[in-house]
Design a protein that fits this description.
3 strands, mainly alpha, elongated, 131 residues
Length: 131
């Protein structure tokens, strides 16, 4: 089944699958909260070197902790879409709301915690937490 069909059927599972795929890719993400941590000592010598069974268990445990932390935090997030067409904003809003967060139609610095923009080069690097 394709990723889009799965996302429409079960957005939580689709997000979990994407989190797992992303966490398994070396060098992705920045910031303490934006990626599942992996200790340098446990990283394979080469990106194509498979992890040992224990390293895989530890990585899965860290990923589970990361997912749990974000699922707890997500209801406190307030999103605002800047420069995103209405159809895309609506498509992205549904899974955001399903995870308990809010989507604002008007920007307010007092309430908005996350701004989603169309073009990455417009963002200020120090304000981005890439996933």
């Amino acid at each position: 089944m394709g990723g889009n069909a799965q996302a429409r059927r079960n957005p939580l599972q689709a997000i979990t699958n994407k989190e797992q795929q992303h966490a398994n890719q070396p060098g992705h993400g920045r910031g303490a909260v934006s990626k599942a941590p992996q200790a340098a000592a446990e990283a394979p010598a080469h990106p194509h070197t498979p992890l040992s069974a224990e390293q895989q268990r530890e990585q899965k445990a860290r990923l589970a902790e990361w997912i749990y932390a974000y699922r707890r935090a997500f209801p406190s997030f307030v999103f605002y879409f800047e420069g995103i067409d209405e159809a895309t904003a609506q498509r992205l809003s549904n899974p955001i709301r399903n995870l308990g967060a809010k989507v604002e139609t008007f920007f307010s610095a007092q309430t908005v915690t996350h701004v989603i923009i169309k073009r990455a080069e417009l963002a200020n690097d120090e304000n981005i937490q890439a996933g």
